[in-house]
């Protein structure tokens, strides 16, 4: 399983790392990211490295990671683009926070690495470019529900069995159209053609239909394009 490490340059003394434990619709092992900001050259604002810790070569590997930017690196009305080994690659940018001047401060980035050799390192150059109109439609909950995906939790509390089911929560959110950014019941965390993620939650329920008022279960479900 890959790990995430971060090295901080003098240009970004405040950069930090956040690690999220996720329940993924699709899981890829053996992939890690080493983050290190470098001096801006041309339009390049950050250079990251995708590191494979797998003993086997992989193809079409989904990679998602959080990235911070200093003020002004990615101005208002601009976006982030990426290249791998100098070749452009489609990048999904889910903006999460901005600086007071409107420039991008934090985003979750997703790309599909076409080929990742065994125990290899692939440089990822991130640049700021003018924003373009949206293209492909995002992955939807309906597409996830069209697969056999499911996850569940079973608990024994004071001798009584309770369960929670991710698929049922996704179905309920989809039927009621309640998924939105920062929604209480279904938080749309990522939304794009490469990856979408929903954080759904609900009470645990016993076989007799009663719920435990003191406990809710959260499922973070991420779906990548082409991995059904």
Which helices and strands appear, and what pairs or packs with what?
Elements: E1 4-7, E2 23-24, E3 31-36, E4 44-52, E5 58-68, E6 78-84, E7 87-89, E8 91-98, E9 104-116, E10 121-130, H1 141-145, E11 152-157, E12 160-165, H2 166-176, E13 186-190, E14 195-206, E15 211-224
Parallel strand pairs: 1-3, 2-15
Antiparallel strand pairs: 3-4, 4-10, 5-9, 6-7, 6-10, 8-9, 11-12, 12-14, 13-14, 14-15
Short descriptors:
single chain, 7% helix, mainly beta, six-stranded mixed sheet, disordered N terminus, 228 residues, 2 helices, globular
Helix share bin: under 10%
Strand content: over 45%
The biggest beta sheet is recorded as: 6 strands, mixed
What is the 3D shape? globular
Radius of gyration from CA coordinates:
20 Å
User: From N to C, what is the helix and strand string?
Assistant: EEEEEEEEEEHEEHEEE
Lateral arrangement of strands in the main beta sheet: 1-3-4-10-6-7
The end-to-end span amounts to: 21 Å
* Contiguous runs where pLDDT drops below 50 for at least 5 residues: 1-42
Q: Supply the helix-strand structural class.
A: mainly beta
If you had to describe this structure to a student in words, what would you say it looks like?
This protein is mainly beta and 228 residues long. It contains 2 helices and 15 strands. It has helices at 141-145, 166-176, and strands spanning 4-7, 23-24, 31-36, 44-52, 58-68, 78-84, 87-89, 91-98, 104-116, 121-130, 152-157, 160-165, 186-190, 195-206, 211-224. The radius of gyration is 20 Å and the shape is globular. Mean pLDDT is 82; it is low at 1-42.
């Amino acid at each position: 399983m890959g790990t995430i490490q971060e090295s901080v340059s003098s240009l970004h003394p405040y950069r930090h790392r956040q690690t999220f434990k996720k329940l993924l619709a699709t899981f890829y092992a053996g992939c890690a990211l080493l983050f290190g900001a470098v001096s801006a050259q041309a339009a390049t604002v950050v250079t990251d490295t995708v590191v494979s810790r797998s003993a086997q070569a992989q193809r079409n590997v989904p990679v998602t990671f959080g990235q911070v930017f200093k003020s002004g690196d990615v101005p208002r009305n601009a976006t982030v683009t990426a290249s791998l080994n100098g070749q452009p690659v489609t990048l999904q940018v889910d903006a999460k926070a901005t600086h007071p001047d409107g420039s991008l401060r934090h985003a979750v980035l997703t790309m599909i690495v076409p080929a990742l050799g065994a125990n290899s390192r692939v440089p990822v150059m991130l640049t700021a470019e003018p924003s373009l109109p949206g293209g492909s439609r995002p992955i939807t909950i309906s597409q996830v529900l069209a697969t056999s995906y499911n996850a569940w939790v079973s608990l024994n509390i004071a001798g009584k069995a309770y369960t929670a089911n991710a698929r049922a929560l996704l179905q309920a959110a989809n039927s009621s159209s309640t998924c939105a950014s920062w929604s209480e019941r279904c938080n749309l965390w990522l939304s794009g053609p490469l990856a979408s993620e929903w954080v759904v939650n609900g009470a645990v329920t016993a076989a007799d239909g009663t719920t435990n008022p003191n406990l809710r279960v959260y499922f973070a479900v991420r779906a990548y394009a082409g991995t059904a």
